[in-house]
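The following block was generated as part of the benchmark described in Methods. Ligand: FE2/S2 (inorganic) cluster.
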Amino acid sequence: MSLCRLDDIEDGKGKVVPPGPDGLLIVRRGEHAFAWRNSCPHAHLPLGLPDGRVLVHGGSQIVCPVHGASFDVVTGTCTGGPAAGESLTPVAVEVVAGEIRLKQG
Ligand code: FES
């Protein structure tokens, strides 16, 4: 199932597809995409902004807009703030012919 095109996301940025708490948070780094459930492990609130934008610092850290926890975009591990010791929940995706898709199996 196609989520969006890789080119729909600027390199080093992210977005929630579709926008909202049930969407997936996707970050692009070059030709790779990393996806996470749109829920911060600190207080289980959405990491994405209501319009689907995601705060990505320096292309490498997802920043929660609620209390400022930061997470590595590749590993999902908390790198600072109030979610220390916790991680984002990964969702397996792959890039096929320029489309970001949920990985089968
Ligand atoms: S809900 Fe994300 S840091 Fe508190």
